[in-house]
Design goal:
The structure is a homodimer.
Chain A: E1 6-10, H1 15-26, E2 30-37, H2 44-55, E3 60-65, H3 103-118, E4 122-124, H4 140-153, H5 155-158, E5 164-166, H6 174-183, H7 208-220
Parallel strand pairs in A: 1-2, 1-4, 2-3, 4-5
Helix pairs in contact in A: 1-6, 6-7
Amino acid sequence: MTASKSAVVLLSGGLDSTTILAIAKKEGYTPYAMTFRYGQRHEIEIEAARRVAEYYAVRDHVVVDMDLRQWGGSALTGDEEVPKSASVDDIGDGIPITYVPARNTIFLSFALGWAEVLGAQHLFIGVNALDYSGYPDCRPNFIEAFQSMANLATKSAVEGAPYKIHAPLIDCTKAEIIQRGLALGVDYQLTSSCYDPDSAGRSCGRCDACLLRRRGFQENGVEDPIAYQL
Amino acid sequence: MTASKSAVVLLSGGLDSTTILAIAKKEGYTPYAMTFRYGQRHEIEIEAARRVAEYYAVRDHVVVDMDLRQWGGSALTGDEEVPKSASVDDIGDGIPITYVPARNTIFLSFALGWAEVLGAQHLFIGVNALDYSGYPDCRPNFIEAFQSMANLATKSAVEGAPYKIHAPLIDCTKAEIIQRGLALGVDYQLTSSCYDPDSAGRSCGRCDACLLRRRGFQENGVEDPIAYQL
C-alpha cells in the first residue's frame, strides 16, 4: 500500500459517511477517519463515529474540536428548535434552518490539512445532492470547486501530488445509498442520523434526517436496525 | 451603513493583517475581526490582535480555538525549530517548514461561515505573494479559487449575495505594505510578526518574518517601533 492510496474520510457516524468509509475500504484505500465536535446538541454522533471507526479498523481517527456555536446561525448548533414533520412530503423546499454556514467547507479544509501531513491524496465525503435537504455545499459543483481550490492551496499539490475529492454518493438517493451499503455488508445499527436524539440515544423519527433515512429503508424493504422514539 | 458593507477581517495581530484592517476601515467597511488560536508556540500574537482590534474599534472580535497541533507538520505548531538566518538573502527558496498545511484555507472557511451569519459579503485577508516566503496559499490564483468555491458553498451566495475576498496586499512587497500603513496612520508598535518571540514579547529578529519586516522598515527609512532581542 503506497502513501498515495491513503484517504482521509469525513466520518460523522451517520448513514452516508459510514457507507463511504465502507466504499473507501472496498476500493483499497487505507482510511484515516476525521470527526468534528463542532457544537452539536449531543454526543451521540461522536459515539457513533467512534463505533464505526473501530469496526472498520481505520489507521487513525481524530476528533477535532471547534466551536461553531460562537456564531450561531443554525438549528443544529444554536437554540432554535429542530423542525419535525410527519412525513418526507412535509419537508420544506428551501434551505432549512439546520443548515450550518460553511460547514462542509470547514470540514473539507481540515481534512485537506490532515491529508497533506499524512501524504494522503484522497478525501472522501458523504454528501448527496438528491436527498441533501437543500444544502448548497452538497452539490457536485461545490465539490469540484473545492478540489480546484485545494490543488492551488497546498504545498503537496503544487509540488505535483494533487488531491482528489471523492463524493461517491453525490447522485444517490437515500434508498440507493442504503442499497450500496447493504451490498458491502454495512451494519447500520452502528450509525446515528438523527438531529435530535433523546438521552438514551434513540432517534426522534421526525426530523428531516430521520424521515429521509426511514423512507430509504422502507424503499429497500429492509427494517432500520436503530431505535426510534416513535 | 448597510449589511453589505460589513467585512470579516482575518487579524493575526501582525503587520500585514493590521494594515488590511486599516485599509478596510478607510474604505468604509464595518469590520468584524477574526483571530485564531491554532496551537501557535505563544500567545503574543493573540495579545497583539486584541490590541489592534481594540484600537480600530471593530464591531466584534472573535478568537477561534482550534488545535492544528493534532497533526503536526509545521515548525509553527510542532516541535521543530523555527529557522533563523542572519539576513533576508539567507532565506531558503522552497516552501519553508513554517508552512502550516491548509492554514489559509481553514482560516478563510471560518471567516466565510461567520460572514454568512453576519450577512457580510466581504472578507479581508492580508496575504502577499511577493514576500510570502513560498506559501502556496498566499498566491492570487488561490484567492480567486477560494472565492469561486465560496460562492457555490453558501446559502447566501446561492440566493444572490456573492462574496468577495479582498487581498489588497497580495502584490505588495513588505516595504510597500509598511508605506501604505504609515500613510494610513497605522501604529506598528501594536503589532507582532515574530515566529519565535521571547517571554517578554520581544521579537527574535532572525526568523523569516522578522527579517522581512526589518528590511521593510529599513527600505522605508523608518525605525521599527517594536522591541527586538538583538
